[in-house]
Amino acid sequence: MKLKFTKMHGAGNDFIVVDAINQQVELSAAQWQRLADRRFGIGADQILVVEKPTLPGCDFRYRIFNNDGGEVEQCGNGARAFVKFVAEKGLTKLSSIRVETKSGVIAPRLEADGGITVDMGAPVLAPAEVPFDADGLAGTAQGVDTLWPLELELGGARETVLVSVVSMGNPHAVQVVDDVETAPVDLSGPLIEHHPRFPRRVNAGFMQVLGRRHVRLRVYERGAGETLACGTGACAAVVAGIRRGLLDSPVRVDARGGQLSVAWAGAGQPVLLTGPAVTVFEGEITL
Ligand SMILES: N[C@@H](CCC[C@H](N)C(=O)O)C(=O)O
């Protein structure tokens, strides 16, 4: 079986995008993982699959598979790549589309200057819905946010980190650090990802506040490891920063692979994510 694909990225978070409307695509988790493998496959942080919608009022269905082959609920940088892909492939003539995802409907918009903004929906903040098991834990209030203590076993020593928990459709634990470059992302990222308090695992964000509208961010992604940028991670970090009283919307987010912008007007309002989407090459692979 041959599979046509497009390789894309958003601020260095890279994707294999597959049109499952005009070709038949039914792959197992092991096959997705093989395709995303950087040595045995094409290589990508995530695979994005474009399908016909199943919900009325939607233009497309968008499925997301992590590098480890697992299907997940949401991907912000991928949503921008998705809208560029469907426009470039002539799958739609609309500049604003409604896209069905595993965690609800999102609305990406192609701007006149080529930039892409995605309405990612409102963040979910109730710990149980993130999901985060806060049972028996004492949180600390900061602004209108609650910081939760997570115990980690770091290199033989016990350490407690304080995290905000936010769902952007997918789960995030965000901590504020003094310097993202020296933060122990490789060490504590996997421990946070698999921490037993997160029943569906979690994306671990490390945010350095540079000013009220400017942060640096690194994210150790669930199912993919550290990526050069994480769109939903940027949204979650800015929501946490605003709730903690550290940031004002809109916020520039510097990731290792590029720059994103996140705007949020507060409780109940949608988060708007803006940033680049780039097509790298097209190919066909025999499975
Ligand atoms: N890179 C993404 C997020 C992809 C999914 C994530 N790893 C998860 O498992 O939730 C983004 O740009 O949002």
Q: Which key features would you list for this structure?
A:
19-stranded mixed beta sheet, mainly beta, 287 residues, cytoplasm, 2 domains, Diaminopimelate Epimerase, Chain A, domain 1, globular, 4 helices, single chain
- Overall mean pLDDT stands at 96
Question: How many beta strands in the DSSP annotation?
Answer: 19
Major beta-sheet overview: 19 strands, mixed
**Estimated share of beta-strand residues:** 35-45%
Taken together, the total number of domains comes to: 2
Low-confidence stretches: none
Count of helical regions: 4
CATH C-level class of the largest domain is: Alpha Beta
Indicate the CATH topology of the largest domain: Diaminopimelate Epimerase, Chain A, domain 1
Summarize the structure.
The protein is mainly beta. 15% of the residues lie in helices and 42% in strands. The chain has two domains: 2-119 and 276-286, Diaminopimelate Epimerase, Chain A, domain 1 (Roll), CATH 3.10.310; 127-269, Diaminopimelate Epimerase, Chain A, domain 1.
Question: How would you characterize the overall build of this protein?
Answer:
The chain has a 19-stranded mixed sheet that branches. Strand 13 (203-211) and strand 14 form a beta hairpin. It is built from 4 helices and 19 strands. The chain starts with a strand and ends with a strand. The protein is globular, with a radius of gyration of 18 Å. The chain has helices at 29-36, 76-88, 185-193, 231-243; strands at residues 2-10, 13-19, 46-51, 60-66, 71-72, 99-101, 104-110, 116-119, 140-142, 145-154, 157-167, 171-176, 203-211, 214-221, 225-227, 251-255, 258-264, 271-275, 278-286. The model has no long low-confidence stretch (mean pLDDT 96). By secondary structure, it is mainly beta. The chain folds into 2 domains: 2-119 and 276-286, Diaminopimelate Epimerase, Chain A, domain 1 (Roll); 127-269, Diaminopimelate Epimerase, Chain A, domain 1, CATH 3.10.310.10. Residues 13, 45-46, 66, 72, 75-78, 170, 203, 221-224, 227, 230-232 line the site of ligand LBFN2T5F. The ligand N[C@@H](CCC[C@H](N)C(=O)O)C(=O)O is lined by residues 13, 45-46, 66, 72, 75-78, 170, 203, 221-224, 227, 230-232.
